[in-house]
Design goal:
Strand order of the largest sheet: 2-3-4-1-5-8-7-6
Order of helices and strands: EHEEEHEHEEEHHHHHH
Number of helices: 9
Radius of gyration: 18 Å
CATH topology of the largest domain: Rossmann fold
Number of strands: 8
CATH architecture of the largest domain: 3-Layer(aba) Sandwich
Structural class: alpha/beta
CATH class of the largest domain: Alpha Beta
Strand content: 15-25%
CATH superfamily of the largest domain: PH0156-like domains
Shape: globular
Length: 254
């Protein structure tokens, strides 16, 4: 295995679970197995702190780093970029929720631009001469390090059964609704029927899908297992392609 890696920096553990299923769908092998709990990176260091390690189809090392919230993503990005001289990074993917209101920002433009600007500002700290690829990636060190941004959003119009906020949960709920017509309406009815129920946010919608159809998997495995159902994969891929995220994941998994 080469002494370099691709790194996916995401907000939390549910993002990590979604990426886990996605990378395995794209041909990566998890280095964490029932018989092998200790995973080491190409430099011989243990992969710990909630991070996951994979080997791509071409033998490259891929790492997922959950940050425990969006506020901690910039710090992790800076840590990875500052250490790239000794631990070469082939591709660094920064993953955010758009967090904008789908009712007024259907294409998540505000959230996407905010994420891109945040990452660009940090990239400038480490390579003021960076360039941009045709697809919009940030190219550092003459192109030897690529920084890509993936933002969770979906172009589906506001509808019953979908959270109003552009997040991973909205992407998942929209894809499940596409794959299994009728579920979104059932989820909306259930949420509306709760006596004195709280305001329904992204997690209420996502967990209703999980509890109603995937309860045996639990919250985290629900996200990774989405990639085991072909009709759900088709729905996810259609949306991720439009968001430009599918191409980024393929590059990281190659």
């Amino acid at each position: 295995m080469k002494q370099e890696e691709s790194v996916i920096v995401c907000e939390g553990y549910h993002d990590r679970a979604f990426w886990d299923g996605w990378l395995r769908h794209l041909g990566c092998n998890s280095l964490r197995t029932p018989s092998k709990n200790v995973v080491k990176d190409p430099w011989g260091n243990r992969v710990t702190g909630g991070q996951y390690g994979y080997e791509s189809a071409s033998g490259e090392f891929v790492r997922i780093v959950p940050c425990g919230g969006d506020d901690f993503v910039p710090e992790e990005l800076r840590t990875k970029l500052s250490g790239r001289a000794t631990k070469k990074i082939r591709q660094l993917v920064v993953n955010y929720d758009a967090d904008s209101d789908a009712r007024v920002d259907a294409m998540a433009g505000h959230g996407i631009q905010s994420a891109l600007q945040s990452v660009e500002n940090i990239v400038k700290e480490f390579d003021p001469q960076f360039t941009r690829s045709l697809s919009g990636d940030f190219l550092l060190d003459g192109g030897t390090t690529t920084v890509s941004v993936v933002v969770w959003w979906t172009p589906d119009p506001h509808a019953p059964g979908l959270p109003w906020k552009h997040t991973l949960e909205r992407l998942v709920c929209a894809s499940l609704s596409d794959a299994f017509p009728g579920r979104a309406g059932a989820v909306e009815q259930w949420l509306a029927s709760r006596p004195m129920g709280p305001t329904s946010g992204p997690k209420e919608y996502a967990w209703s899908n999980m509890a109603g159809w995937y309860a045996e998997k639990g919250c985290e495995a629900f996200y990774s297992s989405l990639w085991d159902a072909p009709q759900v994969v088709t729905a996810l891929k259609n949306r991720l392609l439009q968001a430009g995220a599918w191409q980024v994941a393929q590059a990281a998994a190659s």
